[in-house]
Structures are given as C-alpha cells and as structure tokens.
C-alpha cells in the first residue's frame, strides 16, 4: 500500500517506509510538551479477558508522548470494576477508568435522562461519547485519539501514525481517520466495508446522481475503521451516533462541520486484524446484519437532511444496482486475493451480499416509517448549556470511584 495516490477530495497520508517510529515518536514528544495528547479506549469488560488488550497495554507502555488514557468500561459489575483497576494498573501512563455501570456515573446518566439528553442505547457510541465529555471536562488535551480494544495485531506505530496529523501544529487537519488492509489467516476480511459500503456508495451515486457527500465518503479507503483522532476544539459540536452507524456517522459529522481540507486519512498498518462479528443472517438485531442496517440508515438520514427525496421506489433501484455492483466486486476481490496468495469463499461472499441487499430495503422501510428518528446523541455543547455543572460532576464521580476503590 506504499503508493502516493491522492483522490483529490481529502488528503491521504501514506506510509512510504522512509521514516521510523522512533523519529515520529520524538516529534510527538515535542508536540505533546505544549499540546497534550490523550487516548480514549472504549472497552467491554469481556475484552479484558481476551488476547488483544494485554498486548495493547504492553505496546502503549512504549509510548512516551501520551498525557493520559481515558478508559470507558462497559458491562462491569463492582467486582469486575475492581478487577479492571488491577488489570489496567500495569499501564505506566496516567489513566482514568470511567465505570459506566457504576452508581455514580449512573446518577449522571439519570440527570441526562431527565433532560432527554441521555444516549438511547448502550454500545460503543455511548461509551465514546462519555469519554469525550470527560476529556472536555478536564480541559487538558489538544488532541485525542480513539481506537478499539480488540486489535490483535496492535503495535505502538499504529497510534503514532494515527495521531501525528492532528498533533502536528503545522498541519491543517482537525480529524484523521486510519486505514489499513484487513488480512488475516490467509483470508481477505473486512466484509462490511468491501461488500456493503463500497458497492452501496457506487450504487447511490448511480441512482441519485453525483453528490459531494457521497464523493467525500468514497474517498476513504476504509470508512468503517474504528481508529480516528481529532483536535479537541471540534469535539463539543460533534454528534455521536448511538447505533452501529458510529463510523459513518462520525464521517458525516466531519462533512457537516469541517472543510475537506481539514480531514485526512492515514495509513496506520499493513497488517491489521481484530475480533470478527458473525454475519447473523437469522437475527437482524445482532452481528453484521444489525451493523449493515444501521449503516444504511445513517447514509439515508444524511442524504435526506441534504435534500435528497427517498421513496420505496428509490430504495428498490438502489438495491438492484447495489446487487449487481457488489457481485462484480466479488470477482475483483477474488482476483486480488488470488494474486496475493489469499483465499476468498465466493459462496460466503455472495451470501453476505444477498443479506446486505435485503437489509438495504429493510433499512429503507425503517427510515420511511420513522423519517424523524434522531439516533444521534446530543453534542456536549448542548448538554453543557442544559446543565452547566454536569461535566464537573462527572469528573468528581470518576475521582470518587477512584478514591473509594483505590
């Protein structure tokens, strides 16, 4: 992937293998001396028992430029929170744990619910949103990175490359998005990005015509990557989706709030693998089936907000066009994989495309039934206006948890 191609819509920052992680780290230390850098880790308790997170912490201990790590801990009992405190104590970097299910942060959530400002459902979006609020409340960091806790191929170079574009004060970027190939165990992975998002964007452009928003999304090599970094100045006005359309929703917010010149994508790894979701064709509320519906709904909502008229007939055309384009892409992916000594299960790929095609229509039906649905969590500017003390109370709640269990 060490090319230098630019699409023209957003900047693509490549890894040309001409500098070292050590050199980039030294620069980040210089930037971090005056412009502090934080990392947000949204984590399920179950990820503490997996193989990926211990290695992530080992790699993070090699990083000298981080000011703080903010860990959002979901689905943890009191005993599990105590265990998590011990687990993360191996970090030699200053860190705070937000026990999202603990009584103190649940009290904060009840205050938000009373104002109709609480996230609608649990999940990564809610976790990241609370961590962003906590970061804003502390008012220390100039830049913040976010990545998942299930990356089994994680190394410190990924973080350095992800955060560098927004940490470097000479660069104009307010947001950077990671990209990489999804290859593991001799297989080509990344099914939702390859088999849903890419052909769906092509189909949308063919059916509704060229739109700047669709061109913007198409510029990203891996729009569903969970690794991104932002300058904290844009965080108060970012609206985080509460469903599984988080990554597409964040890119849509970047499109709404920032100029394309303020957004970049950066190559952070040439070997990436993480936990794989089941396709879950038998249950649309789980796995990649649920994810595909939420991604489609996120796209439809944004297009409608931009003035695009959507109807059942339009969705039928989108589905038919998507299906043909996705099948054509399967041939391309198969040839690409074959040339690189990788395997692709064509039957499984076509089965996924059939499911995604059905879910394109299902998402359209849900959108038409409730076009006024607002799945975005309110931004922190609104929350602070509604309750000016809630951010400081959140910081106190985390400190009190730390004092009680420390």
UniProtKB/TrEMBL annotation:
Keyword Transferase: yes
Molecular-function GO terms, alphabetical: transferase activity
Domain of life, source organism: Bacteria
Keywords from the named record: Transferase
Gene3D superfamilies cross-referenced by the UniProt entry: Spore Coat Polysaccharide Biosynthesis Protein SpsA, Chain A
This protein's name: Glycosyl transferase
């Amino acid at each position: 992937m060490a090319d230098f191609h630019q699409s023209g819509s957003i900047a693509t920052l490549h890894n040309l293998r001409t500098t070292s992680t050590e050199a980039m780290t030294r620069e980040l230390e210089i930037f971090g001396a005056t412009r502090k850098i934080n990392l947000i880790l949204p984590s399920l308790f179950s990820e503490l028992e997996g193989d990926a997170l211990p290695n992530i912490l080992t790699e993070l201990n090699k990083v000298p430029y981080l000011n703080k790590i903010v860990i959002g801990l979901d689905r943890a009992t009191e005993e599990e929170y105590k265990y998590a405190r011990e687990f993360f104590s191996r970090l030699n970097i200053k860190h705070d744990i937000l026990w999202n299910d603990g009584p103190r942060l649940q009290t904060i959530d009840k205050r938000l619910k009373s104002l109709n400002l609480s996230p609608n459902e649990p999940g990564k979006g809610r976790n990241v949103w609370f961590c962003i609020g906590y970061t804003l409340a502390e008012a220390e960091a100039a830049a913040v990175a976010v990545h998942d806790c299930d990356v089994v191929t994680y190394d410190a170079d990924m973080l350095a490359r992800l955060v560098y574009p927004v940490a470097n004060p000479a660069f104009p970027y307010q947001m950077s998005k990671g990209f990489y190939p999804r290859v593991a165990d001799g297989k080509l992975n990344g099914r939702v990005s390859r088999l849903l998002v890419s052909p769906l964007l092509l189909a949308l452009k063919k059916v509704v015509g060229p739109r700047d928003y669709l061109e913007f999304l198409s510029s990203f090599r891996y729009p569903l990557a969970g690794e991104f970094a932002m300058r904290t100045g844009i965080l108060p006005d970012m609206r985080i989706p509460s469903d599984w359309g988080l990554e597409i929703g964040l890119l849509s917010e970047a499109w709404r709030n920032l100029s394309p010149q303020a957004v970049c994508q950066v190559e952070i790894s040439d070997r990436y693998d993480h936990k794989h979701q089941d396709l879950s064709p038998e249950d649309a509320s789980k796995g990649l089936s649920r994810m595909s519906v939420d991604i489609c709904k996120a796209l439809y909502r944004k297009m409608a907000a931009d003035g695009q008229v959507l109807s059942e007939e339009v969705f039928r055309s989108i589905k038919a066009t998507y299906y043909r384009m996705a099948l054509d892409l399967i041939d391309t992916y198969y040839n690409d994989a074959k040339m690189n000594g990788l395997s692709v299960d064509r039957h499984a790929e076509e089965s996924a495309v059939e499911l995604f095609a059905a879910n394109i229509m299902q998402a359209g039906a849900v959108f038409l039934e409730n076009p006024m649905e607002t799945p975005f969590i309110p931004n922190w500017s609104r929350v602070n206006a509604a309750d000016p003390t809630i951010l400081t109370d959140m910081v106190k709640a985390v400190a009190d948890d730390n004092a009680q269990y420390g």
